[in-house]
DNA sequence: GAGTGGTCTAGACCACAGG
DNA sequence: CTGTGGTCTAGACCACTCG
């Protein structure tokens, strides 16, 4: 692990245990001296804390602690949200429907795929403790994932894409909205059609920047609150 | 403007016009030479593009373009989301209700204020082109904002807090959920109680890290989709 | 003016990807 | 092995805050 990461980790722990919100960190100079690293390296460490929202730099004044809650660590691990992690990464998932579609003009604007592209739509249901929480429609360029329709049945789709095709799927953007579920979603989610669902649309790409998946998740709003870290 | 910011701006423009998604940037060495800056400075410039999601670094391979759409510039300006910007920063806002409350245990957990704190609740309605879009409940520690209840009537609350009290309000966290509006919200938003609202809870602090405002916004889900930038 | 964070330069070496 | 990005050090000067 890089030095700046080790320093960041130590600082993180100390801030949680010894600092109150509003306290100032020692100066960069002092911290650099204490850890016997260059000031740039120390700054790189503090950058980590800044990015995760734990401290705030104030030009000419110092670096102030703005968050020392334990839950911070959770937020940090799931870079986007805990809930998206549930939606995308947990193994309690199974395919409940699949079909083929072709991209038209309107869908092209939403999904980012070129019109005319042939897509495989996989619909997966995510459950936690046996309770349905979230249903996701995944749209994938069928030419990039030959055989997926026949083979993938459950577990993490992204892990499957990596192990089978070598794609490292990355999220590019998220669009959050809300609506009432259609009857099919309400059935799968085992909830009333009067209970809104939180909708997250995501554009996902491979490590080479090629769009590989567009997904639309619908989550029960009584079971979900999405946490969003600030920059 | 710092050199790295100027370089970032130039690169941003060139990527939009001359690069396709999937293209690689010239190497850091080449770019540094071209702009006559140190490689560290060039890296700092590319850091900006990485953080805004335009490019992706690949150790040992290069830096790849993953997004060159125009709308990117919008996304960049509103660091969190365009919609939160609407909710928090646009001038089409007016106070529709205000009241005093005291923090109890449950509200303390939600808001982060200490139990027993006296709060001023301001309810503001945000409209765009005269159409109501969003209603926000702002909860402020009354001791920190003496006179606010009598004086603030419309416009940006955060700008008012800065000009009047010198507070630079910063968002700390956002929690997104959805629900059906209560009848009062539906009335203000001029919508059906069957139309879900997107709920965003935010904790806001001053430049000294002191919690100053807890807000809960409710937005019409037919007019709003919240964009969330990824790290 | 003293102290803090912000930026820039210079040079070095390491770790990874790919021919 | 070459080229790429990743990290670290060293030293300098600037911009801001506050007493």
Automatic annotation (TrEMBL), chains A, B:
Keywords, sorted A to Z: DNA-binding, Transcription, Transcription regulation
Entry coiled-coil feature ranges: none
Residue span, HTH gntR-type domain: 1-68
InterPro entries: Bact_HTH_transcr_reg (IPR050679), Chorismate_lyase_/UTRA_dom_sf (IPR028978), CP_lyase_PhnF (IPR012702), Tscrpt_reg_HTH_GntR (IPR000524), UTRA (IPR011663), WH-like_DNA-bd_sf (IPR036388), WH_DNA-bd_sf (IPR036390)
GO molecular function, one term: DNA-binding transcription factor activity
Protein name according to UniProt: DNA-binding transcriptional regulator of phosphonate uptake and biodegradation
Originating species: Oleiphilus messinensis
Originating gene: phnF
